[in-house]
Specification:
Layout: H1 4-35, H2 49-52, H3 55-65, E1 69-73, H4 76-90, E2 99-102, H5 106-113, E3 121-124, E4 136-140, E5 143-145, E6 150-154, H6 161-165, E7 169-175, E8 179-180, H7 183-191, E9 200-203, E10 208-210, E11 216-218, E12 225-231
Length: 234
Amino acid sequence: MQDQSQIDAREAIFRSIREHLATSSPLDRREADLAHSQPTALAPGRPIETQAGSLVDVFKSSLEAVDGHCVVVQNEQEVVYALTRIIAQLQQTKLLARRIAISDSPEVERLVQMTDLEVEELAIAPSASEVFRFDVGISQAQVGIAETGTLLLDSSRERHRLVSLVPPVHIAIMKATQIVGTLGEALTILRREAKVSPIVTLVTGPSRTADIELTLAIGVHGPQELFVIIDRSH
């Protein structure tokens, strides 16, 4: 049999959960009024871009809905400018952004070297024991999923798993042509490869964690901030 202290503890947990649910009700109603008052069902097989603009626009909207940041540029020079501006702004905050870890993609290294940023350290694909001291991780993304604003990172193309998951800030760079409508389309692209990657990471916005009392925390088990730079050039 449970003693009185166990019963009291259980009741305290349930009471806290009920209080948090009650507190969130007004926010739930506001969200419904803003975004879901007239939901539109997608017809089977109908491209997402015919519902709400281009795939880039849908991806940007979906990412920003989960507190991510998205910058759409037109060419490589604008990618470099966006990268410079994001890191320069972060350097004015408590996130510092002075120790930069990048993936082993030659393209990412080339773009970072084109910036005129002043940083204390720049490392390529640091080890698990080293990566925790870096402020920002920069990588590419192999696929973007417009429906949910999700990034798909394929470990067989680029060593970016630690870089994308450990530092407080993750900056991902991708081409607009890499954005697809749905998760199903993204998985279809992976299946076309001769060998399926052993590790595929799906990233949707900054890291979010909720405890048993439904208190949401950002950045506990991953980046506090996610920036995606989309290059429209071909």
